[in-house]
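YM 10:42: OsmC family protein sequence, as discussed on the call
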Amino acid sequence: MNTTVRVARNGVDVPTLFATLDAVKANPELAQFQFRAHNRWVSGTHSRSSIQGFYGAMQEDTTRTTPFVYDADHPQVLTGQGNAPTPVEFLLHAIAACLTAGLGNIASARGVTLHEVESTVEGDIDLNGILGTAPAERNGYTGIRVSFRISGDADEQTLRELIEQSTRRSAVFDVLSNGTSVDVAVDVA
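YM 10:58: structure's back
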Protein backbone atom coordinates (compact mmCIF):
# COMPACT_ATOMS: atom_id res chain seq x y z
CA MET A 1 0.00 0.00 0.00
CA ASN A 2 1.37 3.42 -1.01
CA THR A 3 0.94 6.20 1.50
CA THR A 4 1.53 9.81 0.47
CA VAL A 5 3.29 11.76 3.18
CA ARG A 6 2.77 15.48 2.87
CA VAL A 7 5.48 17.74 4.25
CA ALA A 8 6.05 21.45 4.46
CA ARG A 9 7.04 22.95 1.12
CA ASN A 10 7.79 26.54 0.05
CA GLY A 11 7.23 27.65 3.64
CA VAL A 12 3.67 26.27 3.58
CA ASP A 13 2.61 23.78 6.24
CA VAL A 14 1.07 21.37 3.74
CA PRO A 15 -0.39 18.94 6.31
CA THR A 16 -2.21 21.84 7.99
CA LEU A 17 -3.35 23.15 4.59
CA PHE A 18 -4.96 19.80 3.74
CA ALA A 19 -6.37 19.43 7.27
CA THR A 20 -7.98 22.85 6.86
CA LEU A 21 -9.47 21.87 3.50
CA ASP A 22 -10.85 18.66 5.02
CA ALA A 23 -12.31 20.56 8.00
CA VAL A 24 -14.04 23.10 5.73
CA LYS A 25 -15.44 20.32 3.52
CA ALA A 26 -16.88 18.68 6.66
CA ASN A 27 -18.22 21.97 8.07
CA PRO A 28 -18.62 24.72 5.40
CA GLU A 29 -19.51 27.31 8.07
CA LEU A 30 -15.80 27.35 9.02
CA ALA A 31 -15.12 29.21 5.76
CA GLN A 32 -17.18 32.28 6.75
CA PHE A 33 -14.76 35.13 7.55
CA GLN A 34 -15.08 38.85 8.22
CA PHE A 35 -11.99 41.03 7.91
CA ARG A 36 -11.94 44.58 9.29
CA ALA A 37 -9.88 47.73 9.07
CA HIS A 38 -10.18 50.99 11.00
CA ASN A 39 -9.07 54.23 9.35
CA ARG A 40 -8.46 57.67 10.84
CA TRP A 41 -7.81 60.89 8.96
CA VAL A 42 -4.44 62.50 9.81
CA SER A 43 -4.41 65.66 7.67
CA GLY A 44 -5.04 66.68 4.09
CA THR A 45 -5.09 63.48 2.02
CA HIS A 46 -3.11 61.53 4.63
CA SER A 47 -4.89 58.81 6.64
CA ARG A 48 -3.85 55.82 8.75
CA SER A 49 -5.45 52.38 8.82
CA SER A 50 -5.14 49.83 11.58
CA ILE A 51 -5.83 46.15 10.91
CA GLN A 52 -5.89 43.67 13.75
CA GLY A 53 -8.82 41.43 14.55
CA PHE A 54 -11.01 39.36 12.28
CA TYR A 55 -13.70 36.75 12.63
CA GLY A 56 -13.07 33.35 11.07
CA ALA A 57 -13.39 29.62 11.64
CA MET A 58 -16.44 30.39 13.82
CA GLN A 59 -14.51 32.51 16.31
CA GLU A 60 -12.95 35.90 16.88
CA ASP A 61 -9.20 35.91 16.20
CA THR A 62 -7.02 36.49 19.26
CA THR A 63 -3.62 35.70 17.75
CA ARG A 64 -2.87 39.20 16.44
CA THR A 65 -1.83 41.06 19.55
CA THR A 66 -0.36 44.04 17.70
CA PRO A 67 -2.21 45.85 14.92
CA PHE A 68 -0.76 46.26 11.44
CA VAL A 69 -0.67 49.98 10.65
CA TYR A 70 -0.62 51.42 7.14
CA ASP A 71 -0.57 55.04 6.05
CA ALA A 72 -1.97 56.28 2.76
CA ASP A 73 -1.52 59.66 1.12
CA HIS A 74 -1.43 61.29 -2.28
CA PRO A 75 1.73 62.64 -3.91
CA GLN A 76 2.30 66.38 -3.92
CA VAL A 77 1.19 66.65 -7.54
CA LEU A 78 -2.25 65.47 -6.33
CA THR A 79 -2.41 67.84 -3.32
CA GLY A 80 -0.93 65.38 -0.83
CA GLN A 81 2.39 65.29 0.97
CA GLY A 82 3.59 61.94 -0.34
CA ASN A 83 3.74 60.41 3.16
CA ALA A 84 2.74 56.97 1.88
CA PRO A 85 1.39 55.12 -1.19
CA THR A 86 -1.94 56.20 -2.60
CA PRO A 87 -4.98 54.05 -1.80
CA VAL A 88 -5.11 52.77 -5.39
CA GLU A 89 -1.47 51.66 -5.11
CA PHE A 90 -2.50 49.44 -2.20
CA LEU A 91 -4.80 47.64 -4.66
CA LEU A 92 -1.75 46.82 -6.79
CA HIS A 93 0.03 45.46 -3.72
CA ALA A 94 -3.09 43.53 -2.73
CA ILE A 95 -3.45 41.71 -6.04
CA ALA A 96 0.28 40.91 -6.19
CA ALA A 97 0.26 39.61 -2.61
CA CYS A 98 -2.94 37.60 -3.06
CA LEU A 99 -1.79 35.94 -6.28
CA THR A 100 1.62 35.17 -4.78
CA ALA A 101 0.14 33.71 -1.57
CA GLY A 102 -2.22 31.53 -3.60
CA LEU A 103 0.65 30.44 -5.82
CA GLY A 104 2.67 29.40 -2.76
CA ASN A 105 -0.21 27.35 -1.38
CA ILE A 106 -1.18 25.74 -4.68
CA ALA A 107 2.40 24.87 -5.63
CA SER A 108 2.97 23.36 -2.20
CA ALA A 109 -0.25 21.34 -2.34
CA ARG A 110 0.76 19.97 -5.74
CA GLY A 111 4.29 19.09 -4.60
CA VAL A 112 6.06 21.76 -6.66
CA THR A 113 9.05 23.47 -5.04
CA LEU A 114 9.34 27.11 -6.02
CA HIS A 115 12.77 28.68 -6.36
CA GLU A 116 11.86 32.27 -7.14
CA VAL A 117 8.69 34.25 -7.77
CA GLU A 118 8.50 37.93 -8.66
CA SER A 119 5.66 39.96 -10.07
CA THR A 120 5.16 43.44 -11.42
CA VAL A 121 1.74 45.07 -11.34
CA GLU A 122 0.80 48.16 -13.34
CA GLY A 123 -2.51 50.00 -13.23
CA ASP A 124 -3.76 52.77 -15.51
CA ILE A 125 -6.07 55.54 -14.29
CA ASP A 126 -7.41 58.58 -16.12
CA LEU A 127 -7.71 61.13 -13.30
CA ASN A 128 -10.28 63.13 -15.28
CA GLY A 129 -12.96 60.93 -13.72
CA ILE A 130 -11.81 61.50 -10.13
CA LEU A 131 -11.24 65.22 -10.72
CA GLY A 132 -14.65 65.64 -12.33
CA THR A 133 -13.11 67.23 -15.44
CA ALA A 134 -14.46 64.44 -17.64
CA PRO A 135 -17.31 62.81 -15.71
CA ALA A 136 -17.73 60.09 -18.37
CA GLU A 137 -14.32 58.67 -17.39
CA ARG A 138 -14.44 56.05 -14.67
CA ASN A 139 -12.87 56.92 -11.32
CA GLY A 140 -10.84 53.74 -10.97
CA TYR A 141 -8.35 51.75 -12.94
CA THR A 142 -9.10 51.30 -16.61
CA GLY A 143 -6.75 48.33 -16.70
CA ILE A 144 -4.36 46.36 -14.50
CA ARG A 145 -1.55 44.15 -15.77
CA VAL A 146 0.26 41.54 -13.69
CA SER A 147 3.39 39.85 -14.97
CA PHE A 148 5.19 37.02 -13.19
CA ARG A 149 8.73 35.74 -13.34
CA ILE A 150 8.82 32.27 -11.79
CA SER A 151 11.18 29.33 -11.44
CA GLY A 152 10.60 26.01 -9.76
CA ASP A 153 11.11 22.28 -10.05
CA ALA A 154 8.36 21.87 -12.66
CA ASP A 155 8.12 22.43 -16.39
CA GLU A 156 6.97 25.71 -17.90
CA GLN A 157 3.41 24.51 -18.55
CA THR A 158 2.96 23.37 -14.94
CA LEU A 159 4.28 26.68 -13.57
CA ARG A 160 1.89 28.59 -15.84
CA GLU A 161 -0.99 26.39 -14.66
CA LEU A 162 -0.13 27.17 -11.02
CA ILE A 163 -0.43 30.90 -11.69
CA GLU A 164 -3.67 30.36 -13.63
CA GLN A 165 -5.13 28.40 -10.69
CA SER A 166 -4.00 31.07 -8.24
CA THR A 167 -5.75 33.68 -10.39
CA ARG A 168 -8.97 31.63 -10.46
CA ARG A 169 -8.92 31.32 -6.64
CA SER A 170 -7.76 34.87 -5.77
CA ALA A 171 -10.21 36.92 -3.70
CA VAL A 172 -8.53 40.18 -4.73
CA PHE A 173 -8.56 39.26 -8.43
CA ASP A 174 -12.26 38.42 -8.08
CA VAL A 175 -13.13 41.75 -6.46
CA LEU A 176 -11.08 43.77 -8.96
CA SER A 177 -12.34 41.92 -12.03
CA ASN A 178 -15.98 41.36 -10.97
CA GLY A 179 -16.62 44.16 -8.51
CA THR A 180 -18.54 43.80 -5.28
CA SER A 181 -21.23 45.74 -3.51
CA VAL A 182 -19.98 48.36 -1.07
CA ASP A 183 -22.34 49.92 1.44
CA VAL A 184 -21.35 53.29 2.92
CA ALA A 185 -22.95 54.42 6.19
CA VAL A 186 -22.48 57.86 7.78
CA ASP A 187 -22.70 58.80 11.46
CA VAL A 188 -22.29 62.58 11.82
CA ALA A 189 -20.84 63.47 15.22
